[in-house]
Amino acid sequence: MTTRQAVADIVRQCLEAGQRVEIEGLGVFRTSRQGLEFLPQTRPNVFVAYAVEDRALARRLCESLRTEGCSPWLDKDKLLPGQNWPRAIERAIDMADAFVPCFSPRSATKHGQFQSELRYALECARKRPLAEEDAFIIPVRLEECTVPRRISDHVQYVDLYPDWEKGVRRVIRAVRKAAQKRPSVLLD
Fold first, then answer.
1. Mean pLDDT of 71-90
2. What single-letter DSSP state applies at residue 17?
3. Which residue range forms the structural domain that includes residue 8?
4. In degrees, to the nearest 5, what angle opens at C-alpha 65 toward C-alphas 48 and 74?
């Protein structure tokens, strides 16, 4: 039995027991008067990567994204106690429609989790079948800083200063375009 078949069986069993099944990043399966129903998640999933020193600005960005109809993923909000956080972070990046790394003088030079998430997102981006105009990594600068060349040589970034709202509008446009490329998933 393939993983896909096993997941489909589990979903069917839960639905037959009258439960609804939510798969984060995908949508909700439920029973209705008409039979089985799938309600796809329509809010773009956005992974927000940041250095811990920039958490307040990353939260502000997440609120702006949420207000505009996106579903931002921020580690401090989404990780549960006891959860294997390296795996959960990789899964969240894999499931994201867009990866938004937040650059600042602190994150651009810091070694650690931010850089690890950025490396993983670059690897994911290389594996995605994207056209030249498609975006997955949407870098933002929280303030004046140098964006690493491995990013700035290939990807356009957005400044969220001095005009936060203008910068967020540009990010939202790119995120919505990226979400339009979301692959469909069918269960047999």
1. 94
2. T
3. 3-40
4. 30
List, in order, residues 6 or more apart from 121 with CB less than 8 Å away.
Answer: 47, 49, 93, 99, 101, 136, 137
d(CA 107, CA 132): 27
In this structure, what token pair is assigned to residue 54?
A: 């920039």
What's the angle, vertex CA 137, arms to CA 103 and CA 106, rounded to 5? 10
Residues 6+ apart with CB under 8 A from 11: 21, 29, 187
* Assigned domain for 108 exists: yes
Q: How many Å separate Cα 40 from the centre of its chain?
A: 16
Q: Which tens digits make up the pLDDT trace of 103-129?
A: 999 998 888 999 999 999 999 998 887
Spatial CB neighbours of 170, under 8 Å, sequence gap ≥ 6? 158
- Statement to judge: residues 162 and 130 lie in one domain: yes
Give the pTM: 0.79
State the chain's mean pLDDT as an integer: 89
What pLDDT is attached to residue 3?
A: 85
Strand partners, 169: none
Q: Are residues 168 and 124 in the same domain?
A: yes
